[in-house]
């Protein structure tokens, strides 16, 4: 393992000129302005666990389509709880209900959102993406509808994410002023987007975020899903400006200035999937108070269990324990 | 490169017990019984070529959905022509109109079918698959809807293929008694399925066919798309019998006994993508007269340009030159 | 991914003639006959978790040397609890205290043993192996002292494991009649060894066990730590019989007939690290009642979260819920 | 896939100081000054094609040695035709006569030159290189005789290429004022050399050209035949200046200023075989009018079928359609 | 590392039916019947060594062409010495004169033959192969002229080897009754061929021999030069019987019954370059007394320095120390 | 193969600011100040060689622990000889006694030191490292005790090396004023350390030295043992400054200014294991007269046999032949 992107000093200095679409705000306002409620339903699940109670969640996401998830609450908890809303890494579905026990074990409400259409290799998913599958999609999600911001997959996924954050704030066991969004990789990118588009969020904790600074990421990332864009453009020669225009609408580094909540980032310097420079691009542009934990010798796994403790301590400090 | 499957002698002796669903015929009859015409339309294309004239084709495929393709005719050809209907390898779209010039240069009508939703890495595609994208699909097409024969992607693709063969027979420049189906890999598997399901086809020329003998293929194939099924079952543990039941409806080795047209197969002994034993399973069960060219030292590329000449000679003999 | 070992049918029939050292029982009696108590100490740890209480454990292991671990108890639990004693996979240390929350969340006491000297790549460790490092050791543990059963690393590790099981039985919160040993890979091999050498264990749940049927494993395993033995013998030519003799003393398939507790195995058919035939060798020879869950399309990850539920259900049935 | 060479902006600015041997012109004048005619012979071939007529060609190449090729003419063509002379990529032989049908299908004469001694992996060859095989050659052609410009393989191959261009101009069906040289990779380097050394050529269309800017290419290319030089110098330490001196005589970037015909280049920015900076070195130094199509997300495959259309349009514009 | 060929028990039983060409003896008699002397010349070399004296050797090889080598004699040796004639592994040239010091340090004359045309990657060479380079040769030597026994490269190399053994017997410092041939891989195959074709040799010591049992080797070898034949036949489809006929003339397993001198083989069971079954094919058919050292856990490196001591002890026993 | 570090021009300019621990001299003085003699013993070995006599050596190394080696003397040598003390590359043990014959064949005494605990893959070892094995060590030696300079493995290994150089000077057959230290990779790093810490050494010949400029090496090296440090820090997050502090005590580039003997370096520009910039860091800081041979196209193998001749010539010049 070795550095494959900028050094740490270069990352601190890296400030790319990202193109912000003129109608960015209008695009998202139009997409998110929905009077319909999130229609969250909660079905109890028997996981066999005694210390944590779990519900299968359904929320009306983009287009009113059903998006699933899990809600964990600590057994015997009383009073409104702070809530961690977690978005998942690329490819991962919500998995089995007993897979992620940290936040509820620590006394938090924990809401996990399934990523529509995803759910292979790492964890099963349960949410379909009921939209036509365009020709030319590179297997995966990063080029699904990439020729138009309207049809692009990530428009739908970000909308789902905003609505899950809203569902969390409306849940009776949750304190609506202490809803935090977090996630690793794709989940980190979604956290940033929600922090920018959803004013009621109390904090964001994006880890090794994906979906940042596409123009550089597609040229630099030596592995992982950014390569889907390169593979697409290798075949569909001449669509480059159209594709990067679409991507700019969902680019978390483009959206980041709109955020105001405090944020704790983590970035890994030997990350070949989400190159550190692209994560720093989002960090530098982030609109709220911010801190970053840099993991100098890690690849895309980042801070793992070590960073969970950083997050827990940071939240305890933010909210008062 | 080395053998990674059975030896040639073992392949000649390999006769697997494939499970044939009781309602196989009913399933396909129900699927294909459509009174609606194929509604083929032909739009001329300016390719810049002088020796071949080309049309962009649209056919009403499964569910009446538009499926595209190309039709090439030799310039100055007169009278009804024999026609080669070609289905494409996995991942490939119909490409640019001037990419495949062999059959028209040899005096044949040549009809190429786009594979719905496909079209990456090797050649662009233009045909969407306007169906919901279920959760849990391994990127690619082999597990899209694999939990049910009704929803499975290959049900739709095989139906498209049958209807393209029918469109060929109805084209005024084509001699309906000399319509041949062919293709490499996925195209080979589709050729076998069409030969089995579409009585009017005059001959089939499947090359290193995919979609054959799934139960063995999924365990043996060291690379390529069969691995999508293994990856799916690795995560969705316990769905094995359900998945293999779905696959049996589109397994070209299961369908092969229903074919009656003469066939020229090609099989490669060092093929790690479509293991030779699985191709021989289809060959042995094929219902019509048959020959096979075995390429002992080739991987999945098979006979390439060399085999094109074998096919041309075989067709000239079959039809009289 | 593809099969790289025997098929499932062949595995059911595979019964190797394993050489059992004449003094096997005497060797282990001599090794384990220690009058000294296990001297377990328990130091509370502040993990930040509210639903689970955790202690850092120290047990006097082989040679009275301090071996560390974690003990998790469900908060508010009362009365003696069933206890799951977990041994770790190769290379992994006990990690951070909040990494494994499943069993305590499910109402069990959960005792995790650090593996002496290990703790890299996947999870940190805290236990030294205070013994001389012989020349010629292939980096790793599988050849450390392999020229003599007395000096071999796994003699020490198995002894540690036996003493952790004993410590569990002696803990005041634990019901000594419901102590279960489990683990994945190396942890699975250790579970088998403890079940064979430690009569008070109530059940064993070995997953994709390592340390089984060395003579075959070293020839067949295409990846993973068995290769350390092959690498050693490639350089130290002529030590083959001496090395396999040492290995036979710690071979879980050799020890397995001595077990009497009921067992739930898991075995993965595409496991290239711990080939399924070698796991079946242990299964077939296992002395107690036994069941096995076979994962046909998994590599060494085996059943993962899916299998945790199988284990929980099996334990609930065994102990009555 | 990612950038592994300079960025596009850096490539536009990259102007290496290439060492031009003092006797470069004399060397090539001496090599090419042959009064003997090219002695082209044309033997008709029955390819089975109806739209294209094909001849097997033999030309007296370097040393009067027989070099083979194919000539394709569109059936029924009348009057002198523009002619595309194509040189082949490294390793490829002329192949079977029906493999390359684009230019003749488009109404051009198409002359393909076999590369002496080559013809493996991609397409068979038929032309021997009847010269002694020196000790120390790294398998392949890039170090065959590399210790002396006189004996170097590429001196012979470039000479063959010049004489094929001359043969095209002398063919009765060809318009001598509309002979174009082209080729991919090695064929692109040969096109540049012929454009520089053969004044009668009407245009050059080099694609992702090989044989350019050896001093940088040997240090930067991560894959492909430039590595043969590195491998040679790794063993024959101390021959570095001698070897690079030889290479400078056939370096297409060194020769490029001598060209006067208009040229259409293609360069791929993620090309790890022929790094884009080395292609730009030739482009910047090229003596005639020039354009370049840059493929930003392609590896060494470059523009493929997409670029064929660019070339056809460019030629139609150049020659008037 | 793992077994990739037959097990040891299977190798002991493996007796392939190799096709022996009817005119095999006549072919070699015609090839080797040369009245001309070997014309060995010996030029002293200043290596800087004090304990060993070295000469650069030239012998008239096949066609009277000059083949080089080294002769080492122990300083201060007196009286006729036993001589080890060593042939080199594939790709390796004679190297620098001080690279191989074992046999002369042990008191033997040591004659090393350069392999014509070879000399890359591992050690430089100095001997050209002054023959035309046919089209279609896969880079390397295994298909150079493979369409005809007369033109095949290995006909020339074996002839060189026979003549070097003769030169050794004629050298004044050498005892002609104690000339031994040896070599690793290609050198092992040549040792077997010389033992079969050159009656005066006192012993043969082939190590992990190449050039044995081509029909199986080409199908089974997962790496190394046998793959050149597979690659050739993958492109030149239909030449299979012609090529294997040529190979049978130089197949060391075909020639082995003709040998009468005692032999010490070494074979490695995890050898993926020269699969053990193919070496055993030669061993079983070898005509003289024979022993074999089997290295069960080695790949193609075989016994290395360990086996040198086995050879030294075996020679001391054979010749009396 | 391609450059993966700085270019040669950049390497000549590269002068890193290395942190020198304040107590560096005190640390080494304390470590090395031992009044006890080296207690070298020499046991004759029967290698079967006639030109070289060999002894198995034992020296009291760090902590008085027995460290083994070989001593070779040219047979019949008289008078005090110059002596080459060789330290070994990472992982390699002293091997069999007849493996390294060059220096004794050239008339030098040759003392080879076993590396404690090492001896796998390339050559067996015979020296144990009788120290506790701390938890968390990445397999290998680079992180063994890396949390403290006192406990770090390389403190012990460097001490052994200093004492072997002293043993050489005390041997009756050796001229104490002509003792040279050398070695490849790890052996090169040890040579530099000994030259800096052991005043009586006459010259140093470090080849592609390891253990140089750790802060850069750990970030840049794409393969090899520097990666152990990166892997350690990836898991033990937050120990970075502590670990690099320990490494600075044994960093050969940190120690190099203390050397006064003349030195001949070799550095390879395509070395991905010991990146050339890190070797140049040591070269630039080296305190004595110095020369360097740069191998521009070699990876970590460096100059090999070619460089042995450079070394021999350099020593002959230094000492007078």
* Quaternary organization: homohexamer
Biggest interface between protein chains, with counts per chain?
A-B, 31 and 31 residues
Helical segment count of chain A? 11
The total beta strand count of chain A reads 9
- What is the CA-CA span between the terminal residues of chain A? 39 Å
In CATH terms, the superfamily of chain A is Alpha/Beta hydrolase fold, catalytic domain
By secondary-structure content and strand pairing, the structural class of chain A works out as alpha/beta
CATH architectural type of chain A: 3-Layer(aba) Sandwich
Q: Roughly what fraction of the amino acids of chain A lie in strands? A: 15-25%
Question: Which residues of chain A sit in consecutive blocks of at least 5 with pLDDT less than 50?
Answer: none
The domain tally of chain A reads: 1
Overall 3D geometry of chain A? globular
Give me the side-by-side strand order of the main sheet of chain A. 1-2-3-5-4-6-7-8-9
In angstroms, what is the radius of gyration of chain A?
18 Å
Q: Helix fraction of chain A?
A: 25-40%
- Report mean pLDDT of chain A, rounded to a whole number: 96
CATH topology of chain A, by name, is: Rossmann fold
CATH top level class name of chain A: Alpha Beta
N-to-C order of helices and strands of chain A: HHEEEEHEHEHEHHHHEHEH
